[in-house]
Design brief:
It is built from 10 helices and 8 strands. The chain is of the alpha/beta class and 287 residues long.
């Protein structure tokens, strides 16, 4: 098995001391090491935000893209070479704000890749404005009298849009989070791992102690079945004194790659031989 140190990048993370994203990075490195995936077979794609700097801190291929655009870039890379292990990373603003349209359609396409969202319920990079997952009535720099909008529910949205692996973790529990990531990467289909990743600088409400008092693991309930969609949706709306983390839902169904004619041969598109198209035959289909 590979060692975690093989996935440590040359650049040291510049996140604030105590940032939850350190735990996410460590958990991802642990998951890749346990799966023994060589760094040159991994691509990490991100958008914009504190969390989106992650590709620079891990030893693998990486692409730091535009705000909210990690999923279309990752999708294109996966379809271009579906032999790659493709992982998209970002934050709640990047993924559930400007990027939420891409999120919805990537879920329903069921492209075989993993999306890790560091959900700190605040805009950290731009210094503390309310994000799509900020709870109602919470006071932030942009909502000094309290947020008047309802918070978006990432788990429920992923379930309703067709994601086939939906999990939520907590960066304060690295070992548990690493196992959720490992399962997501192993899963054949689109996998979401939404992570409670506290922003210690700008979010004074959703702190490590706040989460530790509330989170519990779904797998500790012997009656919970992650194949039960209705139960998963019910748990997705559980919020308050008790908040579930763990694997909410997992199902097997054909991926986009399975049903795309150009990929059915199993040979990655990037490695298929180029062939000259018969333009006359193509034109006959349109005339």
């Amino acid at each position: 098995m590979a060692q975690v140190k093989e996935y440590i990048g040359k650049i040291k993370p510049d996140w604030c001391p105590g940032c939850g994203d350190f735990g996410v990075l460590n958990s991802l490195q642990r998951a890749l090491a346990e799966l023994d995936i060589a760094p040159h077979n991994v691509l990490v794609v991100s958008g914009i935000g504190c969390s989106s700097n992650l590709p620079g801190f891990i030893h693998s291929y990486g692409f730091h893209g535009l705000h909210g655009r990690s999923l279309p870039v990752a999708s294109g890379a996966k379809l271009g070479n579906h032999a790659l292990t493709v992982i998209a990373t970002g934050g709640d603003g990047d993924g559930y704000g400007i990027g939420v349209g891409h999120f919805v359609h990537t879920c329903r396409r069921n492209i075989d890749m993993t999306y890790i969202v560091m959900d700190n319920q605040i805009y950290g990079l731009t210094t503390g404005q309310a994000s799509p997952t900020t709870e109602k009535d919470v006071r932030t720099k942009s909502t000094p009298e309290g947020t008047i909008e309802l918070a978006l529910n990432p788990v429920a949205l992923a379930l309703s849009c067709g994601a086939t692996y939906v999990a939520r973790g907590f960066s304060g529990d690295n070992l548990h989070l690493a196992q959720l990531m490992k399962g997501a990467i192993e899963h054949k289909g689109f996998a979401l791992v939404d992570v409670f990743s506290p922003c210690v600088t700008y979010n004074k409400r959703n702190t490590y102690p706040w989460f530790r008092e509330r989170v519990y693991k779904l797998e500790d309930d012997q009656q919970y079945d992650p194949a039960d969609f209705r139960l998963a949706m019910e748990k997705a709306f559980e919020w308050g004194a008790r908040i579930p983390i763990g694997l909410f839902y997992k199902v097997e169904r054909p991926t986009y790659e399975d049903e795309e004619p150009a990929l059915r041969s199993g040979i990655p598109l990037a490695k298929q031989p180029l062939e000259r198209a018969d333009l006359a035959a193509l034109m006959e289909d349109f005339i």
